[in-house]
Write a structure and sequence with these properties.
Radius of gyration: 15 Å
Shape: globular
Strand order of the largest sheet: 1-2-3
Strand content: 15-25%
Number of domains: 1
Number of helices: 5
CATH class: Alpha Beta
Number of strands: 3
Distance between the termini: 25 Å
CATH superfamily: CinA-like
Structural class: alpha+beta
């Protein structure tokens, strides 16, 4: 996703950057997610992706922050959080929300579907389809 966006001339006018924060420690240190949130809800949760999206907004001084956290597979799933579960958050000064998706593809397909869903959420927000815009 980031590679394609940054290959468009002038993309730095609207795309400030990204942070890949895989480990809990990175989520805490780079995005300001609290240990309590991670320990209570886990990395793949509404609460964590909202904290991550808020953190990226602050880290980059951006108008819009987005975050994705999920279990792409093939392993790592649990009964309450199966493989394919993905949370995506969007946070702006006047709006924040997170959505859960459950993909059934392989690891690459699940990542591609997540990226496409995130871009669709962003487009929907920019087109004023969510309250608060």
């Amino acid at each position: 996703m980031g590679h394609r966006i940054t290959n468009i001339p002038g993309s730095s006018d609207y795309y400030l950057g990204s942070i890949t924060a895989y480990a809990y420690e990175a989520k805490v240190r780079l995005l300001g997610v609290s240990w309590d949130t991670l320990q209570t809800y886990g990395a793949v949760s509404r609460e964590t992706v909202l904290a991550m999206a808020n953190g990226i907004r602050q880290a980059l001084a951006a108008d819009i922050g987005m975050a994705i956290s999920g279990i792409a597979g093939p392993g790592g799933g649990m009964p309450d959080k199966p493989v394919g579960l993905v949370w995506i958050a969007l946070v702006t000064p006047d709006y924040q929300n997170a959505w859960a998706f459950h993909w059934t593809g392989n690891r690459i397909q699940n990542k591609e579907l997540s990226a496409e869903a995130a871009l669709q959420i962003l487009l929907d927000y920019l087109e004023g389809k969510f309250s608060g815009k």
